[in-house]
Each structure stands twice: as structure tokens, then as C-alpha cells.
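Re: the 328-residue chain
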Amino acid sequence: MRAMILDQPGQALSLRDIPTPEPRGRQVQLQVLACAVCRTDLHVIDSELPNPKLPLILGHEIVGRVTRLGQEASHLVVGQRVGVPWLGWTCGECFYCRSGQENLCPNARFTGYTLDGGYAEFTVADERYCVPIPELFSDVDAAPLLCAGLIGYRSLARTGDARRLGIYGFGAAAHIVTQVAVHQGRSVCAFTRPGDGEAQRFAKAQGAIWAGSSDERPPEELDAAIIFAPVGALVPAALAAVRKGGAVVCGGIHMSDIPSFPYELLWGERTLSSVANLTRQDGAEFMRIAEQVPVKTTTQQFSLAQANDALQQLRRGKLHGAAVLKPR
């Protein structure tokens, strides 16, 4: 099979022919139908996430069709279409796994980071961590739901019943979660890079009532804010924009250092929290909600061999919505 391989952090991916992986135990073999490109992939390439499996096949927003079953697989069937998200395996025995917080398992393995992912024609995944995908969504449309959608949903849940919501960084996750928030009756204010009028128009097209630069204040105080951009300097800005008792949620897996800020910004029972990974329950809940909305993802397709180009466009902020690789 063909796959895009990362041999060392900091290098471009290389297209190579390698053996097709064989499923073992509870694994299933999947023909990759589509795989979205995520900013986390850049964090792996740039060594901002340490100790990846090397050589590595990136990609953790995989839509695939089951082609073979491991000897212990019994939940999925050949021909079934499923999604493969970031969380690829947990131990099931630690405190976090036993307390409903499997996303915090210290022994967890992650698709496209410590397990090979979906920048390939075929992959394998543990059937217990695969996500059923509603038939409503095409392969390409479904791919961004598997990380951008899931992390956005978990971040949104951390804001409670906030009615006035700010979203900092308007990319793949933001354009999905905005649709969910609007469906729930919330008002969304979008914050983009200064001067990025195109992204601001895109945010309004997704249902935001206001869109402006990240250095601006919203027209009214926010009940909560979600930060998707990996920019630590946005934390004080978001805290300044939310009311007393409000919440700021950091939705990324990596963020640059947060600068010091006066206690006054946190005072007044404002809360600051992060979202780490996802749970299988998140996947099941979000797919139901995505179908109800229904979420419409904005995507740009690339061939497997164009993965480096897709990553560079993401790095430069040239994508609105999500880049999706189509191996065939």
C-alpha cells in the first residue's frame, strides 16, 4: 500500500510503498476512504508533541471501511464504515479509566502519534475505539467530525449553559462547534487573526452574530469562551472578555506559553480549564448531535501525495474549514 511517512520531526512526509498492516486481536483492517488534516499533525511534525512513534503515519480523523477482522474482533463486520479518532487505546485499569476519564489514561495510545494513522491507503484500529458514522455524512464530510468536531463538542460541553459564547481561532473545530452552538440557541462571537476579513466572513456564514480580530473586545460581555488557536496570549484576552463567573476553555492539545496576567482577570470566580483528548462516550454523543443539527463541514480535498501541501496551507492559515486527504 502507499502511505505518507514521517521519518523524523521537522522533515516533510515521504510517499512510500509499504506492507499493508494486518489486524491482530481486537483490531480491524480498514481501507481508508478519507482522512482529515489536523493542527495536531503539525504539532507532531514540529516536535511540540514529544516522542512520536517513528517512522510514523500521521492522521487521526479517519473514515474507513472494514476489510478484515482480527481473530478476537467481534463488534464490527466486514464492509462496515466507521471513524477512527485520536484516542486509539486505553489500559482500562488505571484510576482514570475506572472513573469515566479514559481520556486522561496515562497509558493511552493515540492514532497518528503513538499508533500509525490514516495518511495511507489502509490502516488498522482497535474496534472498541472506532466510532459509528451516520449515513447522512459522506466520507469527506465525516472526516473532520472525528477530531475537530469531537474536541469542539467536548470544549463546548465544558462551557455549561453559556448563552453568549466567544470562539478564538476560527478553523476546522470552530466552524463545526459554531453550528452546534447556534442549534442549541447560543450566540457566538468569533475572533480571528487581526485583519483576516475572509475568516470573519466565513465565521458569520456559519452563524456567528459578530466576528472580529482577536485583539478586539466583543460587543457585550461573554458568558464563556473557547480557545482553539494554539496561542497562549489569547488566554488573558479571553479572560478579559468574559463576565464574572464565566469560563475560558482551552481546546487544543498544545499551546504556546501563557503570559503572566493580573489576578484581576481571573478574579470574580472566572474559571480557566483545558480539554484533553476525548472519550468514546463523546464520540457517540457528538455523532448523534451532528446528525440532528445537521452539521455541514467545509472541506478542501487533497490527494494522498499532496499531504505536505495540505499541511503547509494549514500552517499558513490558508484553509477555511478542513483539509481532507482522499487516498484513492
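Residues 280-292 form the longest helix (13 residues).
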